[in-house]
């Protein structure tokens, strides 16, 4: 099994409020930094995204990718790569848990495999940067709403 990278942050908002921001793909360019465009291609019977096209620009890595999303209950979403120019695979998830005083602990897990050769240590460092930026952006976005 591929090694993954994970990190958690506590956000001062209810899980439903955090998930509302996570599931609002059209607004990702407003707070994620790396996502320049986001387009929901397919939704499930509840109106949640099943496939999303993302145009990414993370400095050295620019990519046009499609991710498939799976929603588990109200507090978990995971995704996997459908197609990409730069990546061989990408698996991630957000897991939300209620935290004290109405907050939410958000855990982000990410595994990325690029098509170009890259040392595992460098790849995990890149995953960590992606996760930390995403969690910080999510926290700022949710708490400023």
From TrEMBL:
It holds the Pfam family Polyketide_cyc2. It comes from the Bacteria. CDD domains: SRPBCC_2 (cd07819). InterPro entries: Polyketide_cyclase/dehydratase, START-like_dom_sf. This is SRPBCC family protein.
